[in-house]
UniProtKB/TrEMBL annotation:
Domain Hydantoinase B/oxoprolinase positions: 6-527
PANTHER family: 5-OXOPROLINASE RELATED, HYPOTHETICAL 5-OXOPROLINASE (EUROFUNG)-RELATED
A UniProt-annotated Pfam family: Hydantoinase_B
Biological classification of the source: Bacteria, Bacillati, Actinomycetota, Actinomycetes, Micrococcales
Record-given protein name: Hydantoinase B/oxoprolinase family protein
Organism of derivation: Promicromonospora kroppenstedtii
């Protein structure tokens, strides 16, 4: 039997091994998205299929809770794994939820001690293109998984140490970027070889039983520390909801609801009330189980409360999960999933919105809530490159401003250096900076969004998957204001200016200029309580204008200094309010006046009685009939009191019809 100290030392060796695996992969990779943006990860699992060692700060952190078992079982129905084998898969449905969309290709290698299987190495990369309808394979307008590219069921990519040439040929024939993909896949193989060597060294010292003990020890330690951290939250049940801008096929927004129950160091997330899966690529496949990509905010919370907690599958032991089948967070059939990150970003926001009620001095206000890999595809399709993986800021929390230009949500991708972008992509970067006046005002300011402007040097196509927060602002808390809305504009200020909201592949001509301004995060606390020196520092840094300093904070800045007397008079004139409530923004308030939660819940309950394939269309019919009596850009545009009253009544009548008579007349209008 190993002692606790021996297990701890052995686990440290495993941690070093996965870090080395990641460095190997990154150095050997070919694409910008892997090498520079770091959209990859590596790990080691024991025979449970759960990770026992995961990198602390290299690659994507959100997959720490994945379970390899369903994919391994699917791949071994015709025979067990052997030394030197490597499995490959990318399909959310066929892999049992291991992959979350087709461009994420996962590789699994069995690790043996002699003839005895002891565990697995894992790696994933986001490849540049897996075929499908559009370059880069991801568009919100894809209407099924078949439109998104090549589906790879769990299969042997490497057999007994040799790449299967037929598999590699199929992969190459189904991508616009076969050489970049091949380089990234082989980088994964190099990483797995590194892991195989390091685990082999460890099992040579400990034996298979010792390796199993280390894995169990690591997962149990993380679970125990996670429970201890979560016990600091107030037990209870907390609810919150938020919205995606639209359902991908119409202007009707999508609702994401969570009811979080905190009980003695465990958190259960119930997504009942979340809208049905849609005929666009916003769906997430979870099979109704807690999925690592959906519960990342819980990981972040645990890491905040216990910064030294080891990252491994044990973190999943404290998380419960419910998501009704056929909804955005438990999609079935062949629903498209390419832009699932937009939906899971909003899950992060609603989990924060619920749990900040349990721990108001720990959880932040809403982060920017979007991840937008801005892609430029050359006109002939020979190059498909991510210009920048754009995010916004982190929500402010009690005692601290949010981080500027970094989002603590599902993405911890690195930015692409401008020099690298211009050397590899046919664009010229004109501006890449923090966005002024975007962070929500508060005693602690929300993190600023980003601004990216570039010029196309050749004809091509623009893709901006995950474009969000153009309609509903990231909310503030405890009197803090919401962040600014997102903007995506082509040729701003020119006669051919185009403002975009849903982007499939938007054609660009050489000389066209694109500017993306991402949303800022929510503020925390009353802006009138913000230190004058902090406001002045923000003005000096270009994060807040002089005008916003006065309007939002009541601080008068003249000639680079605070006018103390004028500021005192201005702040005294205003009435301070620091209630511990969410500050949702005018758009959200208008929307929920017409479509209140209680009635939306009733409509959702009715929709779940319908066949899955009909639910989203039925919801659009009901809400669309009500929206027909409101301004075209509602809730971004205010409606008259008369129209609001009529819309409220129309929605109430529509819900009464479906819950009472069981049907709504087609095209119901106010």
């Amino acid at each position: 039997m190993l002692t606790t100290v021996e297990k701890d030392v052995a686990h440290t060796r495993l941690q070093a091994a996965v870090e080395e695996m990641c460095l190997t992969l990154r150095r050997a990779s070919r694409s910008l998205y892997v090498r520079d943006a770091a959209d990859f990860a590596c790990a080691v699992a024991d025979l449970s299929g759960r990770f026992v060692a995961y990198p602390q700060d290299v690659g994507v952190s959100g997959f720490v809770g994945l379970d390899l078992t369903p994919a391994i079982e699917a791949a071994t129905v015709h025979g067990p794994l052997a030394p030197g084998d490597v499995l490959l898969t990318n399909d959310p449905y066929l892999s049992g939820g291991l992959s979350t969309h087709l461009p994420d290709v996962h590789a699994i290698a069995p690790f043996f001690d002699g003839d005895e299987l002891v565990g697995y190495g894992w790696a994933f990369v986001h490849v540049s293109d897996v075929g499908g309808r559009v370059p880069s394979s991801v568009s919100v307008l894809n209407d099924s998984v078949f439109a998104e590219g090549l589906r790879i069921p769990p299969l042997r990519y490497v057999r007994a140490g040799t790449v299967v040439p037929e598999v590699e040929a199929i992969l190459a024939a189904n991508s616009r970027t076969p050489e970049a993909n091949r380089g990234d896949l082989h980088a994964m193989l190099a990483a797995l070889d590194t892991g195989r060597r390091r685990v082999g060294e460890l099992t040579a010292d400990l034996g298979p039983a010792g390796f199993a003990d280390v894995g169990m020890f690591a997962r149990e330690q993380s679970a125990a520390r996670a429970r201890s951290a979560l016990r600091t939250l107030a037990d209870g049940t907390y609810r919150f909801e938020d919205y995606l801008d639209n359902d991908g096929v119409s202007s009707v927004p999508l609702r994401v609801v969570v009811t979080a129950t905190v009980d003695d160091g465990a958190v259960h997330l119930d997504l009942t009330g979340t809208d049905p899966q849609v005929e666009a690529a916003l769906n997430m496949v979870t099979f109704g189980r807690a999925h690592s990509w959906v519960v990342t905010r819980i990981f972040a919370l645990i890491g905040t409360l216990d910064p030294a907690v080891p990252l491994n599958g044990g973190l999943m032991d404290v998380i419960g999960f419910t998501a009704p089948e056929g909804t955005l967070l438990n999609a079935t059939g062949t629903a498209a999933t390419g832009v699932r990150h937009a939906t899971t970003s909003r899950v992060n926001d609603v989990v924060s919105g619920a749990l900040v009620q349990a721990a108001p001095e720990v959880l932040p206000a809403a982060s920017s809530g979007l991840v937008v890999p801005v892609v430029f595809a050359a006109g002939d399709g020979s190059r498909v490159d991510v210009v920048e993986p754009m995010v916004g800021g982190t929500g402010a929390r009690f005692g601290a401003d949010g981080a500027d230009g970094r989002d603590s949500g599902i993405s911890n991708l690195s930015n692409n250096p401008v020099e690298t972008v211009e050397a590899n992509v046919s664009v010229r970067v004109l501006r890449y900076a923090l966005r002024t006046d975007s962070g929500g005002a508060g005693r602690w300011r929300g993190g600023s969004g980003l601004e990216l402007e570039f010029e196309a040097l050749t004809d091509g196509g623009l893709l901006a998957r995950g474009l969000e927060r153009l309609r509903f602002r990231p909310w503030g808390f405890a009197g803090g204001r919401p962040g600014a809305l997102t903007e995506l504009v082509v040729n701003e200020g020119r006669p051919d200016e185009r403002r975009l909201s849903v982007v499939d592949v938007h054609a660009l001509r050489a000389g066209d200029r694109v500017v993306l301004r991402t949303s800022g995060a929510g503020g925390y606390g009353d802006p009138l309580d913000r230190a004058e020196s902090a406001v002045l520092a923000d003005v000096a840094a270009g994060l807040v204008t002089v005008e916003a300093a006065l309007e939002a904070y009541g601080v008068v800045v003249r000639d680079g200094a605070v006018d103390a007397a004028a500021t005192a008079a201005e702040r005294t004139r205003r009435s301070a309010s620091a209630e511990r409530t969410h500050s949702l923004g005018p758009e959200r308030e208008r929307w929920e006046r017409v479509f209140p939660s209680a009635l939306a819940d009733q409509l959702d309950a009715y929709l779940r009685t319908l066949p899955t394939a009909t639910r989203a269309a039925r919801r659009r019919e009901v809400l669309g009939g009500v929206l027909a009596g409101l301004p075209d850009r509602f809730p971004g545009v205010a409606a008259s009191e008369e129209k609001l009253v009529a819309a409220e009544q129309a929605f109430a009548e529509a819900v009464a019809a479906v819950t009472g008579a069981g049907a709504v007349p087609a095209h119901t209008t106010p």
